[in-house]
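Obj.: predict assembly geometry.
Materials: sequence records (below).
Method: joint structure prediction, all chains together.
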Amino acid sequence: PLRVVSSCRLVIYTFPFDIQNCSLTFGPYLHFATDMRMIQGLTSEEILKESQDVLQTNGEWELAGISVAPSTLTLDEGGYSEIKYYIILRRRPVLYVVNLLIPSCFLITVDLFSFLLPPQTVDRSSFKMTLILGYTVFLLIMNDLLPVTGETTPLINVFFSISLALMVASLLETVLITNIQCSSSQYNAVPRWLSVLVLRYLAVVVFLPRKKKNNQITVFLNPSLIAKNFSNTDISAIQLQPVFGDTPPVNPPPEPALDELRKLSRDLLAIRLQVDKHFQGSETSQEWQMIGIVIDRLLFGLYIVFIAVSFITIICLWSNHYAA
Amino acid sequence: PLRVVSSCRLVIYTFPFDIQNCSLTFGPYLHFATDMRMIQGLTSEEILKESQDVLQTNGEWELAGISVAPSTLTLDEGGYSEIKYYIILRRRPVLYVVNLLIPSCFLITVDLFSFLLPPQTVDRSSFKMTLILGYTVFLLIMNDLLPVTGETTPLINVFFSISLALMVASLLETVLITNIQCSSSQYNAVPRWLSVLVLRYLAVVVFLPRKKKNNQITVFLNPSLIAKNFSNTDISAIQLQPVFGDTPPVNPPPEPALDELRKLSRDLLAIRLQVDKHFQGSETSQEWQMIGIVIDRLLFGLYIVFIAVSFITIICLWSNHYAA
Amino acid sequence: PLRVVSSCRLVIYTFPFDIQNCSLTFGPYLHFATDMRMIQGLTSEEILKESQDVLQTNGEWELAGISVAPSTLTLDEGGYSEIKYYIILRRRPVLYVVNLLIPSCFLITVDLFSFLLPPQTVDRSSFKMTLILGYTVFLLIMNDLLPVTGETTPLINVFFSISLALMVASLLETVLITNIQCSSSQYNAVPRWLSVLVLRYLAVVVFLPRKKKNNQITVFLNPSLIAKNFSNTDISAIQLQPVFGDTPPVNPPPEPALDELRKLSRDLLAIRLQVDKHFQGSETSQEWQMIGIVIDRLLFGLYIVFIAVSFITIICLWSNHYAA
Amino acid sequence: PLRVVSSCRLVIYTFPFDIQNCSLTFGPYLHFATDMRMIQGLTSEEILKESQDVLQTNGEWELAGISVAPSTLTLDEGGYSEIKYYIILRRRPVLYVVNLLIPSCFLITVDLFSFLLPPQTVDRSSFKMTLILGYTVFLLIMNDLLPVTGETTPLINVFFSISLALMVASLLETVLITNIQCSSSQYNAVPRWLSVLVLRYLAVVVFLPRKKKNNQITVFLNPSLIAKNFSNTDISAIQLQPVFGDTPPVNPPPEPALDELRKLSRDLLAIRLQVDKHFQGSETSQEWQMIGIVIDRLLFGLYIVFIAVSFITIICLWSNHYAA
Amino acid sequence: PLRVVSSCRLVIYTFPFDIQNCSLTFGPYLHFATDMRMIQGLTSEEILKESQDVLQTNGEWELAGISVAPSTLTLDEGGYSEIKYYIILRRRPVLYVVNLLIPSCFLITVDLFSFLLPPQTVDRSSFKMTLILGYTVFLLIMNDLLPVTGETTPLINVFFSISLALMVASLLETVLITNIQCSSSQYNAVPRWLSVLVLRYLAVVVFLPRKKKNNQITVFLNPSLIAKNFSNTDISAIQLQPVFGDTPPVNPPPEPALDELRKLSRDLLAIRLQVDKHFQGSETSQEWQMIGIVIDRLLFGLYIVFIAVSFITIICLWSNHYAA
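Observations (raw structure tokens):
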């Protein structure tokens, strides 16, 4: 009955799925190998079986196997006979899978789905920010659970870093799209090459056929026509004419009713243009928004591809090490 | 007066309601059973009573019972007489119920009720995201309180994982519904089969009778009629006609008042259509929104059923183990 | 100079205001009471005074009193003379009051005041969710500070649980009210009994006199009148008549100006009804919203009453124990 | 080479800037002062210099000074010659300033600036709630860093409590203002005394001169005039007259065009009033909002004053103790 | 086989990239240097190689080098021969880079990008507040990981403080801009010098050419003209004239149709002005908003410059120390 505390070099590269191989070396260091020779009394299966019976509080480690090998420590003055026990410990990953991997995958899934949120109506950037906040809290949990001993960085750290990077990248993308969608009215006209590149070619890639304008026009009764009428000449002049100079030549007799009608017509047109502009935005603005939608969908696709590739790689690495 | 530190294999499957059975074995390992025999001096009731008197700082463990049994450790060379004390310890669950289970149930209840929030007007997805953030903070508390010793994963971990999964699932559902409701204007027309399936059959399942359209039409004075009139022909032509070509044949004399009236009428119609479209959305959009509502309610029902089944199962498991 | 570690059964029912009574028993267990008798050398006041002088790092405990009593431990073979020192330790509650109770009361106050936020315009449910999130973080702090030793659950745990329960309840109430306010347009008409019960009787209880409708009508020029005119007959028919068949019989000569005016009138009426409907909502909707307001205020009242009763009870319990 | 663990009564009133004075007493308690006398070998400067050289891992404590004084412990039987070393330890405050005070001041500053957010358009209450949530997280950090040993509550705790109280107070103020601004349409007219007190006197105090109404009226063409015209008589009657009875007496010949014009005029007036009401709110509502703005600014001023006074007091206390 | 616990003065100025130099001194302090002389048996390379083979659980420290030097401790009575081993330990920075620096840089990047969010439409201040909240959670993680031993404040603390300060500064800036943008309607006219300074000179600095007003006017048909017409005279008088006194002199015969038309015209003008005002804001308001945009962009530029300079400085300091 002797309590021995030994240390073991942990290989935590595949952290929650890792298998440690620790060796215990016993030897009579007072007698040379010529005097005393260590031989093993039980086969390694018997030792394993007995150890598993005796072992009680194994916590997160599971005794997976024990192998025995005699060896000799050779020094200058002579050798010592030794017996080395290799103890294979397999970590029980359930705790870490349940507390770290599953919630993390949940958050990534939410981040993925959040691309479905319309960036304009709902505040998608705020949603994603809260998500990243949740992930930060999550890193806090992780720091309490993760082992710090070891030379190599565990793969799970890479997993979390990639997850965080993806979230941040998707947040930045959202901010960009929001900027395009909301501030588009301050922009200049879309450059020709951008318009062609995005709306003609990329839009096809993301299965977003360019909307036929005609359908939409049936509803608001093309204001571009009206705008075209007024675009060549000075609007203010046109406005002024009916008030001061234009009415007399058309109607020599001061016909007050017609005058009132013209004023009515002018005001109504002003309201109509204002309303059209409000509900629909300018041409430029619309085009920018369309570009925003196309880019949003394109980056969404790239995001899915990148996530898939990253996670399949990591899972492959884990399963390889776990099987080995 | 001797302090003995012993270890005990914990069975934490039913964690906050668990009962541990630890054994203490006393024996004179210097003398064989033929030389010395251990017999118990007090009955187990007396020992229990005395122990409970003496026990002071029992913390979260309550001494539930002690049973005594003599046994013999038989080795090849002879046996040792032993006495085994089985100490039944019952964990006081109040702390964990108050700090873990009750807040968790509260959060789940909030998640359940959040289905009542209208997904369009209020930002339901953001609400649910904050809820999940709160739950993550909560998992942080849990990790400090939960024991990590033990082979099996405690049932409470399953409980928390299911809760988190449900929350995430309901968040994803909300994102989906929000997408249907907000982006519906970009969608194509609802496929026929989907419309029939959802609006006719599923709507009945969720007690949401299809709204009679007539009631609603009484208010906005069917624009579909107007739209129908303009849909066959080219709108812009119609618009242009009164301006350039159509007026002369109808009114040979250049009647300016009538002209103004026609302009007025045209502008007003444009405004009216714009307003109608804004306040009511297109037919397609409305149908998609209706589908969103039906699916939302359907999944809400499924969610309730699933929650109920999961939690009843877990409570049954707990109560079984606690009673046993 | 001998360091003795003793343990003391803590009574933490009134946790941050608790007073512990620990006993130290000294006795010569090698000599029976007949041989050696323990007598106290100093009065308990002297001991207390000297102890307080000597005591340096008392941390959160304050030595409140020491009382001394000789006693005898009687066994079968004879008794031992003992002296028992009862050490009264009073916990310094300032740390816990400042870190736990005051912030908790602050959060409860905020929750109380948040009823003042209008549930429609501002996102009250989201506000309350953030509040609950803050409270969860707060429970995290609490778990680090609270003692876990002890049989009974401390009253402060009950306090926190009630606070959390109240917050959750008020959040659920808010969700419900929000649902009534926002989704009311999808509801059927208010049932007669509910309307009478809530708007006539409960509204009086919460000092919310039913608004006189007339004042409001002066502004929007009763659309119910117009709606009534159109409700009996088929609207679409009325709409169609001026366009196709109705005009000829009324005006035998094809008077185009009048025709245009009628179109104008029709469109304007449509816009007006649309605008009225938008700004004011339907009658049913308004009634539901009124019900929502009444219930909101009623539950607010009940909430205040419940909070007051709970906290007065808890404070009474604490002050009783602290005074004792 | 002897390791001595001593304890020292910490005075943590001025916590991160505190200076501790610990004493170490050495004496030969086997020999009376008559037999053996302790004299110091080195001056206190030499000791200090040598200690500072030797001291390696001083962590957060800096050895500020050592003073030496011989003393005598006088008992009844005789005295012992002692030497007392007073060790002055100064805490390095940088860690706490960087981690506790600076972020806390940042949060307070944000809270102060958040008064600039318009309570109506942006959700100021939600902003402040998030701020308080951040402060709660912050208290969590604080609890890990703050010492709990000591009798008095450190001044930094008072600092944090005042900060939290100020934040909560400003949040409550915001909720109140939001209530006034958003729910003002449900309120009764502003009481005369309140209107005079707030709008005439307090408005001057906060440099917010009452807006001249005329400027605003130039834009919306005083609807109060129209409202006045209709306020005396029953609106519905006026409305009905043109439809049923009023038109015949005015125009004996059934002039349909005029009839249509009157209908047009009526509808347009209704829309205009609706739009006016929407964009501008009622008189009462406007007055309440003005009161809200004045009170908001007034409390903002008080808040600044209170913050300034509190923090200057605390800083004075700290600097006094640090200098001493 | 002797376990020696030694302490080493850590220099944590360049914390996660630090290299520690610890010395171990061995000497026979029973024998003077004249009697016994310590000489090193192996070269420092051999010692290093052997140590690295033997070293197993090195955790976060990597043995970078060992150098050996004989020395002599000279006292008055004689000297002791000593051997000093200098052990160079290099910290493995991966853990800290992954857990502290990368997420921190991510958050800073998000903060930088959040300037792209339009301050008006989306709630940018709320977004930034959540970001700061996330950073606070992050400081919590940092406090668990950072070493507290050491005299100097590590550079990483400065890094975090600067990051937090930048975030808070940008939040304050956002609040200010939001105030300018949202509350601009309450402001007085822009002072002349401010307008010239910001809109003419600063706008050029930030590549934001002043918008030509004409383009915008083409859409809403210059209301300033109308406003100018009404600004000289009393509007209410003009309004009243057509109703009571003005119509009779113009049209001696009571022409009801013209009367109705005038009423129509007046109402429509009122609506038009209201709509214009709503969609476009007043001149002053627009100018303030323009100023807000210019300042926002200017401070954004300064922010980028400051961030760049700070981080390049810190990285230079780190790389210098790491290379050394």
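Conclusions so far: Residues 19-91 of chain B form one domain.
To do: check interface contacts against the pulldown list.
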